[in-house]
Amino acid sequence: MKALLLAIGLGLITVLQAQDPPASGEDTMAMSGKWYLKAMITDRETSWKKPELVTPMTLTVLEGGNLKAETTLLINGQCKEVELILEKTSEPNKYMAYGGKRVVYIEPTEVKDHYILYCEGEIQGEQARMAKLVGRDRESNEEALENFREFLRAKGFNQEIFSPKQSDTCPPGTDQEPEA
């Protein structure tokens, strides 16, 4: 009888553990490090300027599971340093940014070391959506890009995908200014 109770108890624990989502701390730690922007899209082209060039994005895990994202964008001949804090929520892979004005989802793709960053909320005073495909290396990956296209179709995007030029640093002779 004790063996039967032990087997049932262990089976129940196994089932309950299988129903729990993966530990978000492990997922968050997997996101830490350098990421290359492979493709991006937004549904608000009117006021949003496409970057001419981007540096790799660095994600740093902060206390409490929040993330700090840092990158530099070259827009209209000026380099803009961008630093953003993504505040962890109770939902896995969901973060808040800009004081709750934007919701950011970090979704894994079927391709190793590739994620989709999906953002919705206020961007430059307008309601907008944006999605970015990021990967651990700067090489193009057709399978990851196809996963990104499928994600975009499911979200109802019909705009053209943009792939910015990559550089490790901002080009010499451009003014560098931090973005607020």
Automatic annotation (TrEMBL):
Q: What sequence ranges are listed for the domain Lipocalin/cytosolic fatty-acid binding?
A: 32-164
State the name under which the record lists this protein: Major allergen Can f 1-like
Question: What CDD domains does the record point to?
Answer: lipocalin_1_3_4_13-like
Q: Where in the cell is it found?
A: Secreted
Q: Which spans of this chain does the record mark as coiled coil?
A: none
Give a GO cellular-component term: extracellular space
Keyword check for Nuclease, yes or no.
Answer: no
Q: What's the chief localization of this chain? A: secreted
The protein's organism comes out as Lynx canadensis (Canada lynx)
User: Is Secreted among the key words of this record?
Assistant: yes
Supply the Gene3D superfamilies for this chain.
2.40.128.20
Could you state a single Gene Ontology molecular function term?
A: small molecule binding
